[in-house]
Amino acid sequence: MQTRLIEITPKALDEIKRLAPVPGAAHLRIAVLRGGCAGWEYRIEFSTAQPGDVEWQDGEIRIAVDRESVARLEGAVLDYQGGLSGAGFRFRNPHARGTCGCGTSFEA
Question: What positions does the domain Core occupy (predicted)?
Fold first, then answer.
């Protein structure tokens, strides 16, 4: 286990705990992949860590970041915004030069 690569806000941690299939059984695995309108998109899923992933624990939540995504995620903040429309996880990423109109992908 290593130190945190990204910050996860308390609201995001609460939502991750609520969504976790079995608390502590899987990692929250985060990656940045080619795609979306602006060139890069985030993937967040409950999964086992893969060889080479950067791993750490934040309270009860185990987190894994794909090794190839580290440079595009280091220093980012993962937050959760609730509400009737537009609810979901949001990244504040210092490496993003811009985002697409719908906010689901970014340019780096």
Answer: 6-103
